Amino acid sequence: MATARGLAVLQAIVNDYVATREPVGSAGIVARHDFSVSAATIRNDMAALEEEQLIAAPHPSAGRVPTEKGYRVFVDNLTRLRGISAPQRRAIERFLRPGEDDLDQLIEKTVRLLAQLTNQLALVRYPTFSHSRIRRVDIVDLEDERLLVVLITSRGMIAQHPVALPAGQTLSTAREAIIRVRRGLGDELVGTELEGFEGHADAVLAHVAPGDRDLAERLLAGVRLCVQGSRSERLLIAGTGNLLRTEADFDHTLVPVLEAIEEQVTLIRLLGEMSHDGSAVSVRIGRENDDRVLEETAVVSGGYGPGDREVGRLGVLGPTRMDYRANIAAVHAVAGYLSKVLR
């Protein structure tokens, strides 16, 4: 177990290596940090850290760099969460204002802001809406004898789907039926939870006039697709260029990582696992990520949602050589502000 000074030396090595990407030697530590001991003493501390596999030499006669285990010990011993700067706080407050955007705009702003604050690849998992309610159902005329079903949820999610009129009907001849079915949809569906949609859909059909049934079934099918889209797992990503600029920090090609980012399934599963870690901000480093594709990356993520209920998750992905303290602070702050906006 590293001593208190040994942990301080590890912290110095991590901070210097993150800043310079150069292996760190004892002489550099003495010159840049106030340990009030000799370089020989620091070398002894580094030897103990190396024996515990917290640091390693990338090649003979070089300084030392942190290992995955070393980064983990560093993160676990961050006793004080660095606050974000005043300009960062103003940027968050300017970007994330309650009531100004629908959910899609809000999530898009959030992911772009997080990428800018951290200079990492940022990702936001859309809220899961198992408890979201239908706030409004609209039916809008389109060209070519079609209608557009528009669903708005209590969380601001907007989904839409086109629907063709029954054969032989036009917007003019079906006008009265459209009005009746629209009224029935609103009366039966507005205020209900998405999870209970099917039961209320049956009630709509039970009360519809026989001559309106074909139209009602088509419109309900459109609403059903909107509901399914609102409940699906979605991930928004920004800052891919930030990740590409760190390619030198990876021993292997970035192509598999970029493919996993594009496919999203691996990241969605990882964020789901991290939501069970039991901390406000969770960190996975290197091979702590179960998927081999991500074993050279680090992921910092935090949950967001109204009150104490987590409905989504956001975070950053980058090389294991990242500024953990700053990224943890940024993820924590942005998640907190997003939670306030969603209340």
Automatic annotation (TrEMBL):
One of the GO BP terms on file: negative regulation of DNA-templated transcription
Keyword annotations: Repressor, Stress response, Transcription, Transcription regulation
One Pfam family cited in the UniProt record for this chain: HrcA
SUPFAM superfamilies xref list: GAF domain-like, Winged helix' DNA-binding domain
Any GO molecular function: DNA binding
Domain named Heat-inducible transcription repressor HrcA C-terminal: residues: 104-326
InterPro entries: GAF-like_dom_sf (IPR029016), HrcA (IPR002571), HrcA_C (IPR021153), WH-like_DNA-bd_sf (IPR036388), WH_DNA-bd_sf (IPR036390), WHTH_transcript_rep_HrcA_IDD (IPR023120)
HAMAP family registered for this protein in UniProt: HrcA
PANTHER family in alphabetical order: HEAT-INDUCIBLE TRANSCRIPTION REPRESSOR HRCA
Function: Negative regulator of class I heat shock genes (grpE-dnaK-dnaJ and groELS operons). Prevents heat-shock induction of these operons.
Family per record: Belongs to the HrcA family.
Database matches in NCBIfam families: hrcA
The protein's name: Heat-inducible transcription repressor HrcA
Organism of this sequence: Pseudoclavibacter caeni
